[in-house]
Design brief:
- The chain is of the alpha/beta class and 772 residues long.
- The chain is 43% helix and 16% strand.
- Strand 18, helix 18 and strand 19 form a beta-alpha-beta unit.
Length: 772
């Protein structure tokens, strides 16, 4: 291999410099390579004596030290070093630390392909070379020192040496023949520093060279300590200058950063960090999921609950959420310090001949269990999934927990609503079969399934396989025991990360009584009742005003009524502010099915607001047992519901009694809930032979990356085609509009002319007659 001169420009940052120099001396063959240290007139008086001492130490070989007479800046300093050298050079910031065999790895990468100009290694903090989070400052992961982290990176690396648009100057290897061809950094254009490396790299590209990433080596980089914050002020100006000088290269670099074709490198590091933290791995099966658990955008209680569970227990467990995703499947992974996601091709949903089992689905779950070392499978919803999970749980000896959030096991329609959109509490088999014949949803088509019996049999088998079955309320437990009498069911009420409001509510008959509906309202949430109630109440002049925080599937919220205000969608964390800003006195919950929990009750009570609801399900049980509001029978007509609201408004004494009960009601916290699940999950790590699936993981990640890129290309093409269609449509609409106006003018103008001529003729005729 060619000899190399390692050039370290120095300006203050003494503590980092010590670590950097010591690591280079310890981990570099300085018999064949040289270390050139150049001080750029540092103001820290400790630096020169420290380096002088290193150079004069007889144990150290091939270490040269130069001192600038004045502060020239980074560019002139490293140019001096490159001009002094006749070898390949490696520019190394003084706030870095290197590890054993680092230089040999970089050299191997530099001479692995033709026309390589520069090599950049991975780092914790090096923009496009940063891992595990791209373009961010990362710390060395917990329980790793730098040497261990390098061993980890080397063991899992692809070692593909992929091309990158520019090299990164914190640790930049440059071949001597490239310097001889392209020249040095541009001192005249860039002054002391900033932008010179990018300019140099673009000149290399113009000469037919390329830049590569050494992805089996990581160099620690503190964070731009070597030359302070001086150059941050000129970053914007230099960016504009580079754009003017290299518009094509800058545009390509921007596209590369946006697309990031080396995403699989970061994902590979991320996944393996997760798999090597020795924590219990929990696979969650659910029907709908978004990636970011902190955005509060989930539209259903099941997703809310799982998001809360992950946020509360993330420090103790690795969570892997598997859900249908736009015709395919997606696995979202969460551990204490990171998160990732992987999309699976939609083979499992194409041409499936069986409603209950799917071989492709089984292969996906098997791969996930093996690759991600799954210890526990926790089913939260089976909609969109297959029952191969039964055999896989037994095969891999994983623990199986099932939380039932609705009535899917006994009713594929989920909410016990039949084909006539009527609630059926205890339908017989014939009724169910009629209902099934006419039912389909996005994931589950029942058109060829004429009998409910196989459905209940397969659910019986799944539930019997479970190590634990959980429901969020006692009422829900009793309903399920009617159908599955042999089961043992535990009740764990949902907890909520919410603060109790301190405001005191009161009702003043001279002011408005504000009644709210919360959430996205559909048929089973009482949409028809709410619409009729608002329309009915608009006939009266009482001071009762209705508010909707959320949406209605029917679009009713877009209509105007004098006694109704629609506030639109809201973020979960902002609800308490919205309720108190609008002085809400009562929350109405008109779900026409027996809900299993209902977050709305908890959110209302946390804000000291009573509720009015139908006496059914968990809502009725909670309101009745704790005096949290008022109940009425399902099926109560609209005038009676309105009279009930009026009576609540008028009876101030009873209202205060309910408020007292609400204030004494103990709301279960998220920590309380997570502690209960922690006791369930703990000590359930599966004892299995640990297999090294590193190569399988690398293949999965790269295949997934290619699949994502392919889908991205298809989606972009669809967007382009859609935009073209819209443009054509708009042009057609414009043509029709213009044609219509021209047509109107063509028909209107002759009539006007004819009318004007007739008017003139008649007037002239009248004048002539008068003259005669």
């Amino acid at each position: 291999m060619n000899n190399c001169d390692i050039i370290i420009p120095v300006f203050n940052a003494f503590d980092y410099l010590q670590k950097c120099v010591q690591s280079v001396i310890m981990h570099t063959n300085l018999d064949d390579n040289r270390l050139i240290i150049i001080d750029d007139k540092s103001t820290d008086e400790r630096i020169i004596p420290y380096i002088d001492n290193i150079v004069t130490n007889k144990k150290n070989k091939n270490i040269l030290f130069f001192k600038n007479n004045e502060n020239y800046g980074y560019i002139k300093t490293v140019n001096f070093g490159m001009k002094y050298s006749n070898n390949d050079v490696l520019l190394l910031n003084s706030d870095t630390e290197v590890i054993n065999n680092w230089l040999n790895k970089i050299k191997k990468c530099a001479y692995s392909k033709e026309k390589i100009a520069t090599v950049t290694p991975l780092s914790n903090n090096a923009t496009i070379a940063s891992v595990p989070k791209f373009y961010q400052e990362n710390e060395i992961p917990k329980h790793y020192n730098l040497e261990d982290y390098q061993s980890f990176i080397e063991n899992i690396s692809y070692a593909d040496y992929n091309e990158i648009p520019v090299g990164i100057g914190f640790c930049l290897y440059i071949k001597r023949d490239v310097i001889d061809t392209v020249g040095f950094f541009d001192e005249e254009s860039f002054g002391k520093a900033y932008g010179e490396e990018e300019d140099f790299c673009y000149r290399c590209l113009d000469h037919g060279y390329r830049h590569v990433l050494c992805d089996d080596l990581i160099i620690y980089h503190k964070s731009s300590q070597s030359f302070g914050d001086y150059y941050q002020d000129i970053e914007i100006d230099r960016g504009k200058f580079l754009m003017q000088r290299y518009p094509v290269h800058k545009e390509i670099t921007s596209k590369w950063v946006r697309a990031y074709p080396l995403k699989h490198v970061n994902k590979n590091v991320n996944y393996n960090l997760c798999l090597n933290n020795d924590k219990t791995n929990v696979l969650i099966i659910i029907h709908a999921w978004e990636l970011n658990v902190n955005e509060n955008k989930y539209i259903g209680g099941t997703s809310f609950h799982v998001a809360d569970l992950i946020k509360g227990l993330r420090p103790q467990y690795n969570f892997h959420v598997f859900a249908p995703y736009y015709g395919a499947f997606r696995l979202c992974n969460y551990w204490e310090t990171g998160e990732e996601s992987t999309e699976f091709s939609p083979l499992a949903t194409f041409c499936n001949t069986n409603r209950y089992y799917n071989t492709e689905y089984s292969k996906m779950i098997s791969g996930i269990i093996e690759l991600f070392k799954i210890d526990i499978i926790h089913i939260h919803h089976m909609l969109g999934h297959y029952f191969d999970l039964i055999d896989l749980t037994i095969q891999y000896k994983t623990k199986l927990y099932i939380t039932l959030h609705d009535y899917y096991p006994v009713c594929p329609r989920i909410n016990k609503f039949n084909h006539r959109n009527e609630y059926c509490d205890k339908a017989n088999q014939d009724d169910c079969n009629i209902c099934l014949a006419s039912y389909s949803n996005e994931w589950f088509i029942m058109e060829e399934t004429k009998n409910i019996t196989p459905w209940k049999e397969i659910w019986n088998k799944l539930l019997a396989t479970a190590d634990k079955i959980i429901v969020p309320s006692g009422n829900t437990k009793n309903i399920f025991l009617d159908d599955f009498k042999h089961l043992t069911i535990d009740v764990i009420e949902h907890g909520l990360d919410i603060s109790r409001a301190q405001d005191k509510l009161d009702i003043n008959k001279d002011k408005k009584f504000n009644v709210a509906f919360l959430g996205n309202i559909n048929l089973v949430k009482g949409m028809a009742i709410i619409e009729k109630l608002i329309e009915y109440s608009s006939n009266f002049s009482e001071n009762i005003h209705f508010h909707l925080f959320g949406m209605m599937k029917s679009g009713f919220h877009r209509q105007w009524h004098k006694n109704f205000t629609s506030h639109g969608g809201y973020d979960r964390k902002d609800l308490n502010i919205l309720l108190h800003q609008n002085n809400i006195n009562l929350v109405c919950i008109f779900s026409i099915w027996p809900e299993t929990y209902c977050y709305t009750v908890t959110e209302s009570v946390a804000n000291n607001i009573p509720v009015l609801a139908f006496d059914m399900g968990a809502i009725g049980q909670r309101v009745k047992d704790n005096n949290l509001g008022w109940l009425t029978k399902r099926g109560t007509d609209i005038p009676e519901i309105y009279q009930t609201i009026k009576s609540i408004y008028k009876d101030k004494t009873e209202y205060q009694n309910v408020l007292s009960s609400i204030k004494s009601y103990n709301i279960k916290t998220l920590d309380d809930m997570c502690n209960e699940y922690d006791q369930i999950y703990a000590n359930h790590k599966v004892s299995r032979i640990v297999e090294n699936h590193t190569e399988r993981m690398k293949v999965l990640i790269k295949e997934n990356y290619l699949y994502e890129r392919m889908m991205s290309i298809i989606q972009n093409q669809e967007k382009t085609i859609r935009a073209q269609h819209i443009e054509i449509r708009d042009k057609n609409d414009l043509y029709k509009s213009v044609s219509w106006r021209v047509g109107r003018f063509v028909t209107w103008f002759p009539r006007k002319i004819k009318k004007a001529i007739k008017f003139c003729f008649d007037k002239n005729l009248k004048v002539k007659n008068e003259q005669d």
